[in-house]
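Schema walk-through. Below, the input block comes first and the output block second. Nothing else is stored per chain. Lengths vary across the set, and this one has 181 residues.
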Amino acid sequence: MDARSRILEAAIQEFAQYGYDGARLERIARAAQVHTAQIHYYFRSKKGLYEAVQAHLQPPSLEEVMEPLKAADLPLPQRVQEFYRRFYTATQALGWEGGNWALLPPLLRDPRALEMAPWIEALTQAQQVGLVRRWPLRFVLSLQWSLAMEPLWYAFPPEAREKHYLEEAPRLFWEAVKAIP
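--- output ---
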């Protein structure tokens, strides 16, 4: 691995552990086995290095993660299951294991991302025909988001995270919101 790549990898760990303000270029240089002058050569400043880390992580697009919720041709439970699968894939791609929330892309920090017209409309229709409880939609969306964020908030180990997203979250969401006949 070249010096620039080692610096980026060390910086990801440093920023995740200490945040931007607590991160030290000296620790990054030591972990990357380079001199601090090389950090300045490649990235000019701490801010430049932080911006390079953000670009390197390449956050998933909002469209990719939310797309299943808009798919009118899929039943609601399948939409939710696919949403959680894609959310899991997005967090895995980032390599984010918890820690500094500043490194988590806004898409994965903001529950308002779920407030898309097609998803709201689908939930409203499901409430009207008695498939989903007539709870306030913001409550339903908050529940959905909480189940998505739980493994990140509580630093689940990788195998438990996968099981949560692919099995437990979709099941728990539907057990909670489906209307009881």
